[in-house]
Specification:
homodimer, 332 residues, alpha/beta, UDP-N-acetylmuramoyl-L-alanine:D-glutamate ligase, nine-stranded mixed β-sheet, five-stranded mixed β-sheet, 12 helices, 14 strands
Chain lengths: 332, 332
Amino acid sequence: MTDRKFDTTCIGNAIVDVIGKATDDFLAVEGLTKSSMMLIDMERAEDLYSKMEPALEMSGGSAGNTAAGVASLGGKSAYVGKVRDDQLGAIFSHDIKAIGVSFETEKSTSGAATARSLILVTPDAHRTMNTYLGACIEIGPEDIDPDVIAGSKVTYMEGYLWDPEGGKQAFRKAAEISHAAGQQVSLTLSDPFCVDRYRAEFLEFMEHGVDILFANEDEVKSLYETDDFNTALQAVRQDVDIACLTRSEKGSVIVSNSDVYEIAAESDIDVVDTTGAGDLFAAGFLFGYTNGRSLAESGRIGSIAAAEVISHYGARPAENLKDLVERQLSAA
Amino acid sequence: MTDRKFDTTCIGNAIVDVIGKATDDFLAVEGLTKSSMMLIDMERAEDLYSKMEPALEMSGGSAGNTAAGVASLGGKSAYVGKVRDDQLGAIFSHDIKAIGVSFETEKSTSGAATARSLILVTPDAHRTMNTYLGACIEIGPEDIDPDVIAGSKVTYMEGYLWDPEGGKQAFRKAAEISHAAGQQVSLTLSDPFCVDRYRAEFLEFMEHGVDILFANEDEVKSLYETDDFNTALQAVRQDVDIACLTRSEKGSVIVSNSDVYEIAAESDIDVVDTTGAGDLFAAGFLFGYTNGRSLAESGRIGSIAAAEVISHYGARPAENLKDLVERQLSAA
């Protein structure tokens, strides 16, 4: 019998990334909004893919990347997400287990294929994501194992999970179980357009259901419909216990009701592909937080993990993050 | 109607590479021969994959990499190889077309899945390949389009194509058409163990059927069953018009009946993954050769293309080789 105690259980859309280079002109011609995530149907996915450069495939999915990051840091993580019993599903399943994450969600055996995101990386290293949700729409509350959630210090969920209808239900069920077991619930806002789609629901859910929020600057400003980061920061600290606000090269800010910690971004990073930066920041923070580190230390681990993932293509760590963090923290 | 004239048509096993890191200990425990290619069945593929680190997927296949290289250099190339109508087949098909290669081989609609090679990259950047041939065994002479072969200055085939029975027949048919049209035939020996499997047939075929041979040091020594490179070199120049012999960091030697050219390896390369080095050398040489360059110049282009592909994971060029070669040749 496997151990059912985890630092973090991550719930999200299980996606294989299809990563290719693209020019800004290509984004313009295809009508894509740079640095955002757009949902597309199968027909559009095939059309866009046919126009894409040669690509490489790697497992992704926001919360999947976070679960992989926690495991690479030496933490115990589980993942809940839906793939089909197809070749891309086998790739997703292999990769998340191989890095040490517990992944037991039943694969769907009919219906849509495993989800993929066509990720266009422009020469400035920014990523523009076009996601076909596929089998992700099959997720539902029946995929939530109460023992796993009750045994997880933090249950972390991506805002993107609001897009498939069953995802929202799975999300609410998991949050209830987590809190009933005296554990904590964490949410990432995922994307400014995702915030646009679900602003009222996110705010309502945050009031009672979220202990730790992750958001980047655009997302938190979108949430409170303000152009001013500081206004958003003051608002969010009323709504959640801890907010982790990431600001790319300006570093990050960790806010609790009583404190504000500013964390500098790692310096001297040769940025290749920003995909996964927020996911790995969350992984680093949650690993630190669930292992007794201070908020500031946890934020620093988040910065180190994020810096690693943006230094190469793909949204999962390419080197062992435990060793990397130990080296970086001892060098300080 | 598309143009049916090509610099090079490449025929080979159509494979998606599954690339992961591994230690030398892992190779030993799994009984793998470092730097070789081993054929495995589906059961072994699943077993080995389940033990592999998280991986990335990229289109590969030796001759496929060469066709992609020729296209990236600005040449006109076509590819013949068999995939199934599954997700990996769609990936293979997309990638080779997206780089500019003509690929019209009919996909199989039943039988084995698209081929994959589990490629283990050790810390010294060497690759050890474990290939499940899958749909490749369905290739046959019916996949050879006489117009394409007759319209190709060089038809290039991988020794690996001898493994599926129909591959050998396709190979012989293509060679006959090529020569009947006054064009040239090229063969790569692929792997020393592949040479072991088919030594007599390769030698017999080379006598009448091969104008340009590619081999690395181990392969050509295996072919003539000698430990001495120079002995092999003197033997091979009797058997083919041109032999391109690659020697890793020792550079390469181009041998014709009358001349021997030594080409230095590119210097200052940070070697990450040697997969595709020979394939891209062949691409560079064939691009130069079919576009009127001298043997020595063609070899230099091969070296530049090979140096690019070993500087990153994956066996296909990550940057535009035409631009790279122009920069490197003008810098000389």
